[in-house]
Amino acid sequence: MKRVAGNRDHGAGILFRNLRNDRIGRFGFVFHQGSPLSRQSHGGWSWFRIFGALGLVSLLSGCSGELSALDPAGPSAASIADLWWAMLWGACALFTLVLGLFLATWFVPTFGRRLPPDRWILWGGLALPLPVLIALTLYAFTQGEFLLKGATKDTEDALQVRAIGRMWQWHFSYPTLPGSVAEAGVLHIPAGRTIEIVAESEDVIHSFWVPRLGGKIDAVPGHANRLRIRADQPGRYGGICSEYCGTGHAGMRFEVRAHDNDGFLNAVSARTGQ
């Protein structure tokens, strides 16, 4: 930088421009692979891409598995997953808009200077995010009403199951099936039929959750909470207690086995001795 005698403001202006250009140069280094500086750091850039790819693979791998809410196997879980994705894309839209404004002010110094500060607050703080937030809220209310109705219109055909939590196991029984007895750790259900879970607790607060089949519901001592789930296809689905309940909380897991109609009756008969 050259110092201009007799004009301190002019020198400060040169300093500001140099600093701004230096920041833009460093910013461009990240995205512009063909720059001389990036060619000198080719090895570091390669490692950056490798770690970025590994991070992306790790993120995508979390979208599947027996305890993934983003891999739904029933209408309730699908509704929750749809809401999650809608919220994610809405957040991405807001982030993109804000980032676009930031980059515009960074690279175009004259951008927005004609707009007074109160207008920036009004349009940038209210008018810009408000339509996205309103749309997401209305969609969330719609999905919530769908879940409250059990994610199905066939409310009369629901099979009731009692899920009793106690340190540190789940015990399941079928009040509407004659001769049924409680079984620990395994819940048998018929595929394609709505199941009404009546969650209770005998000691502390637990939380019943089968991520691929529906939402979660707390099991509170002295109170019965209800939740409806359904498995579209036969299979095995993992379930957990999602409320910390003591030293054995991590091992308080169970398995849901969804059968076809004949398989379900056979499983219940084998379990009850009928």
Task: Explain the overall architecture.
- Pfam families: COX2.
- With 274 residues, the protein is of the alpha+beta class.
- Among the domains are: 1-61, no CATH class; 159-272, Immunoglobulin-like.
- The chain is built from 7 helices and 10 strands.
- The strands form 2 sheets. The protein has a 5-stranded mixed sheet.
- Helix 4 packs antiparallel against helix 6 (130-148).
- The N and C termini lie far apart (93 Å).
Topology of this protein?
Elements: H1 8-31, H2 36-40, H3 42-61, H4 75-107, H5 117-127, H6 130-148, E1 159-166, E2 169-173, E3 183-184, E4 186-190, E5 195-201, E6 206-209, E7 216-219, E8 225-229, E9 235-241, E10 253-259, H7 261-272
Parallel strand pairs: 1-5, 4-10
Antiparallel strand pairs: 1-2, 2-3, 5-8, 6-7, 6-9, 9-10
Helix pairs in contact: 4-6
Membrane topology: Multi-pass membrane protein
Domain Cytochrome oxidase subunit II copper A binding: 156-270
GO biological process, one term: ATP synthesis coupled electron transport
Features:
274 residues; alpha+beta; Immunoglobulin-like; five-stranded mixed sheet; elongated
Distance between the termini: 93 Å
In CATH terms, what is the fold-level topology of the domain at 159-272? Immunoglobulin-like
Tell me the helix content. 40-55%
CATH homologous superfamily of the domain at 159-272, by name?
Cupredoxins -  blue copper proteins
Shape: elongated
Strand content: 15-25%
The largest beta-sheet arranges its strands as: 3-2-1-5-8
**Which stretches are low in confidence, meaning pLDDT under 50 for 5 or more residues running?**
1-42
The chain-level structural class is alpha+beta
> In CATH terms, what is the architecture of the domain at 159-272?
Sandwich
Q: How many helix segments?
A: 7
